[in-house]
Amino acid sequence: MGEKSKVIFRLFGILDVTGEVVTMWIILAVIAAIALIVKKNLKERPGRFQNMVETGVEYLDHFFGDILGKKKSRQYITFLSSLFIFIIFGNYSGLIPGVGLTDYVKAPTASLSVTAALGVITFCFLQYAGLRCGVKHYFKRFISPVFFMLPLLILDEFIKPASLALRLFGNVFGEEMVTEELYHIFPIGVPMVMMVLSLLFCALQALVFTMLTSIYLDEVTEIEE
């Protein structure tokens, strides 16, 4: 964020807990509760809530399937969907009245430390997915098509997650700052329009992050015939 987040308390004396961390815990608890409720109440004839969840899962399955292919999509959908759900919940948490106005509750995706952590997780998963396709395949892609590309391809491997983290942080944080400034200049009307646009904007950022991740995933797991 533009200014350092206030530490609310220290966990185990070493881990700083900020407003972003508190909001993350709340988001994870809500997601876990929803998952448990859906799992416990699964029915052959779904109700409105189950139907809505199943529609969302089917949409994500088709979305990732169009990029990765059905086989890869089914293989990696758990990771990709988890990323998407956390990011969209994190983005929308900033639209809840009161969030961001206090140091105790802040939208996590508006913090560079959170988006950087998502970038690191994505980087580690990409390496894991590449190695699963074979050690020979994993190292061969760093020297293809020619060996002297090795330094650039290694650098590119680190740039990808860094760009994901900075893009998400920059867009979410920038949108929050614009809305806040407009509120000070035009306290009536304009901020409400921005809030409505943010409903689409927050979903779009989650889609962009996971879409690019799935593209990178397709690249590292592509095996030449």
What report would you give on this structure?
It is a single chain. The chain has 225 residues and is mainly α. It contains seven helices and two strands. It has a two-stranded antiparallel ribbon. α1 (19-40) crosses α3 (70-93), α2 crosses α3 and α2 packs across α7 (190-220).
Task: Annotate the secondary structure layout.
Layout (H helix, E strand, L loop, with lengths): L6 E5 L3 E4 H22 L7 H21 L1 H24 L18 H21 L2 H6 L9 H36 L4 H31 L5
Antiparallel strand pairs: 1-2
Helix pairs in contact: 1-3, 2-3, 2-7, 3-7, 4-6, 4-7, 6-7
The number of helical elements comes to 7
What class, by secondary structure content? mainly alpha
Largest sheet properties: 2 strands, antiparallel
Radius of gyration, in angstroms, nearest whole number: 20 Å
Strand portion: under 5%
Number of domains: 1
Please count the beta strands (DSSP E, at least 2 residues each).
2
Assign a percent range to the helix content.
Answer: over 70%
From the structure above, extract its key features.
mainly alpha; two-stranded antiparallel ribbon; 72% helix; globular; single chain
Short description:
Helices cover 72% and strands 4% of the residues.
